[in-house]
Amino acid sequence: MNTSVAIQVLPIMEDEKKLVAAVDQAIKYIKSTGVNYQVGAFETTLEGDYDQLMEIVKNITKITADAGAPQVMSYVKINYKPEGQVLGIHEKTDKYQH
Predict the structure, then answer these.
(1) What gap in Å lies between CA 5 and CA 30, rounded to an integer?
(2) Cα-based distances in Å from 82 to 49, 64, 76
(3) Strands of 72-80's sheet, edge to edge?
(4) DSSP code of residue 25
(5) For 49-88, what is the HEC assignment?
(6) CA gyration radius for the chain?
(7) What pTM, to 2 d.p., does this model score?
(8) How far apart are CA 76 and CA 67, in angstroms?
(9) Residue 90 confidence (pLDDT)
(10) What is the DSSP code (8-state) at residue 83?
């Protein structure tokens, strides 16, 4: 695992139920890819191969729009280590879980 990505998709929609449904479609897509991920209150973290994660990032915004959002803003953080491995989700967060 040479990459971790945090992505926050923000569908611009007035109806909160439709907004949540659009985000749910993005998360459903992430789940379907088979990558390791963790959903947080503000963003979802994914880990895996750089090229695979970049393809997922590209598709998430389109999937959210296809779910009914007339406009989508996406914020992405990328941690890439071409030689070796990045710290995983559990290495970063397990000690804080209760």
Answers:
(1) 12
(2) 10, 30, 18
(3) 36-39, 44-48, 3-11, 72-80
(4) H
(5) CHHHHHHHHHHHHHHHHHCCCCCEEEEEEEEECCCCCCCC
(6) 14
(7) 0.89
(8) 20
(9) 83
(10) S
What residues have CB less than 8 Å from 23, skipping those under 6 apart? 9, 11, 64
Domains of the chain, first to last:
3-96 (3.30.70.930)
Q: What is the pLDDT of residues 20-77, one digit of tens each?
A: 999 999 999 999 999 999 999 999 999 999 999 999 999 999 999 999 999 999 999 9
Q: Are 58 and 72 in contact (CB under 8 A)?
A: no
Sign of the four-CA dihedral 39, 4, 61, 31 = negative
pLDDT range class, residue 80, cuts 50, 70, 90: very high
- Show the tokens assigned to 38: 């963790």
d(CA 13, CA 86): 35
Tell me the two tokens of residue 46: 């994914």
